[in-house]
Amino acid sequence: MNSSLQGIGMTSLRTRERMIKRLSEQGVYNNKILEIMRDTPRHIFMDEALASRAYEDTSLPIGFNQTISQPYIVAKMTELLLGAAGHLGKVLEIGTGCGYQTAILAQLADHVYSVERILPLQKKAKSHLWDLKLKNISFLYSDGGLGWPDYAPFDSILASAAPAEIPPVLLQQLAIGGVMVIPIGKSGNQSLHRVIRNENGYHIEQLESVTFVPFLSGKE
Q1: Is residue 10 predicted with pLDDT exceeding 50?
Q2: Closest CA to 71 of 89, 85, 59
Q3: Rg (the chain; Cα; Å)
Q4: DSSP string, 172-205
Q5: 69 in catalytic set
Q6: What would the DSSP string read from start to end of 61-121?
Q7: How far apart are CA 87 and CA 101, in angstroms?
């Protein structure tokens, strides 16, 4: 691994180990997720000026009024998606962003189908993910509210932006037995939801309070 991926100082493995210890203390129990997050260089997904803060438990700006989610939220959403299974099948990600959450999912999934509405962000994410040699990812430049019907249904769906309510199209694209993790609500009043689709419909759980950028329609 080259030095920029490996990290030094505030981006070194020792700093990452501190992040993992903190995640464990915050209630993230899945060792596989913790190992993947320890070994994935979060600092390469943000501007150099912010790289030294990459392993703090905070969300950080990535441009275009978007953010990279705090490590705890990335870990928690991934853990909720994974459930008792040790592996994810076909995953739909709404909001590629900088690509960090995509990188974590790709190391647990058969394939990740990632949709982004901001083209320059998508291009940067592709470059970072290519540097990590993660090749089980397909990218779509589109309105996330449309999902990716060509490859539906999906075993798992994860959204990185908060709509006012769960988009019906995403519910339709979730396979029976599938799980969706999505923040819901307006700014200042959002909570994480887990949706499980069964033969009879959808079981929806409201979980902890969160703060995400709003789920917007259209493309930029």
Answers
A1: yes
A2: 59
A3: 16
A4: HTEEEEEEEEEEESSTTSEEEEEEEEETTEEEEE
A5: yes
A6: EEETTEEEPPHHHHHHHHHHHHTT-S-EEEEEEE--TTSHHHHHHHTTEEEEEEEES-HHH
A7: 16
Q: Using CA atoms in the order 6, 115, 85, 163, what is the torsion angle rounded to 10 degrees?
A: 110
Span 3-210 CATH architecture: 3-Layer(aba) Sandwich (3.40)
Map tokens 């199209």 to a residue.
169
Q: For residue 47, which of 11, 17, 71, 16 has the smallest C-alpha distance? A: 11
Report d(CA 217, CA 187) in Å as an integer. 16
Residue 8's alpha-carbon distances to 2, 44, 48, 52, in angstroms, are 11, 12, 13, 9
CA distance 43 to 55: 8
Q: Are strands 88-94 and 109-116 parallel, antiparallel or unpaired?
A: parallel
Question: How long is the chain?
Answer: 220
Burial of 216 (0-12, 13-18, 19+ CB in 10 A): middle
Catalytic residue among 69, 114, 156, 160: 69
pLDDT digits (tens, 9 = 90+) for 19-34: 999 999 999 999 999 9
Note the pTM of the prediction, 2 decimals: 0.93
